[in-house]
Amino acid sequence: MTSPTAASGACPGALSPLGHRLHEFLSAERVVDDLRRYFGIGLPPGVAAFTGSRFEHLAGGGGRPGAADRITAEDLVAVQTLSVTVPVPVALDILEGRLGAQLSGLLETIPRDIDMVDVEAAVVAPNSSADQAWSLLCDQYGVNWVIAGKVLARKRPRLLPVYDRVVRCAVGRPPSFWIALQTALREDDAALHRQLLELRQAAGLPETVSALRVCDVAVWMNHRALGHPCP
To answer: Does residue 231 lie in a domain region?
Structure first.
């Protein structure tokens, strides 16, 4: 899997391919209903929300004071709500070993409480602390790229996106998802970011659900419903 910070080919001055694609998904007629269904807003009795609706909220969230710069057992459980599991040897190393200390050192240098749209590109660029944390998990410890991304998204939900095979398939497999997404969020005077916030409000979601998570869920629900094969 190519690093999420690999070089992007977006053309300045025009809407990027990812920007066009995301606007299509977010303008779909069903998008608000999809968000409400996923997060369990207004569901009839006996119909459960998706387990992933607990990802950002379990145990107060991954970015809560006192835990934002270390990966906890609650974070590892939260990742499981998105249907993946950190391998047990890696999880133990995160909780009790050298890997946890390495990741904490990197997390301390990754901005908190800020949206991807508002940071400089360098924050999600190659060799950034976020990229180093992703590479540490994937390249040195053999963690699947989807799992590594979800671990980091749990710790910095406003800055780093959840990204899996369904979303990758839906958006056309950009070679640099983090950079391409940040470009898409900032272009046209941050129109995409504003659209995500408007959708969050329309669906009745709490502000603790980040714009990035609204985007992920909207795309995932739409593409999953269409039944596209996503290897």
So the answer is: no
